[in-house]
What we know:
With 129 residues, the chain is an alpha+beta fold. 54% of the residues lie in helices and 26% in strands.
Amino acid sequence: MMDPTTIVLLVLIVVLVIAYPILVSTRNKKERQRYQEMSNSLKRGDKVLTSSGVYGTIVDLHMEEDKKIVTIETGMGKNKGYMAVDAYAIYTVFPDEKEQAEQQKTEEKTNAETEVQKSKKDEKKEEDK
Length: 129
């Protein structure tokens, strides 16, 4: 007969062997979904960073067979260059100033509405007492 420590250790190992792949696949699914959404929202003029560390601005988007190809402009002036990459090579898209200002206004409005709701709840609690 096995002692309780061995049984607990075996149960823990079995749980980890089962849980780890589930957790990893969930994380990968979320990341794939994020990349898919980002890939679908790409547009000309977006400032981007590729997964290889190249900064640039999107100048063209087109489909080649079943892949979305993004042409980015890198460098400035005499050092300007163009690079075509797969849309999935885009690591991040930087919001432009207009979008950033709109997003900040929306966040401020949401925060203000939340504060109003909290104060109403607090007033209601005080009235109930």
